[in-house]
Amino acid sequence: MNNAAQTANLLNIDIVVYPGFKALEAIGPLKVFDCANSCLKQRQLHGGYQVSIASTKIGLVPSDTIMSLQATKKLDALSIPDLAIIVGADEIETALANCPEIVLWVTTVADRIKRLLALYNGVFFWRKVAH
Questions:
Q1: The dihedral of CA 58, 19, 80, 3: what is its sign?
Q2: Domains of the chain: residue spans and CATH
Q3: What are phi and psi of 45, to 5 degrees?
């Protein structure tokens, strides 16, 4: 299988971060998809996950720890992933108030995205959109 065909078989996953996000809630899913890709490769199976760190702008995004993550994708209503995972924060109301672009993006893409997931203290809140 060529590179273009392999890329076409990948599900696009955006892990959405913003200033003050919980580092553990971003790293956990990142590692899960990395392990899934490794298992698929070891078994020589097709498919997998193309994971991106997304935010309101490209660049370093500080977490609730000394660690920051590099957002390589800007949230865009025209470039919707197969799955978006919005990570939690200790003060989620404050975080969302400080980053209204994320709320606007979710509102804009909610009826078009295949799967939208939010994390809070390690608990998944899942919304599957019917197509």
A1: positive
A2: 3-128 (3.40.50.880)
A3: -100, 150
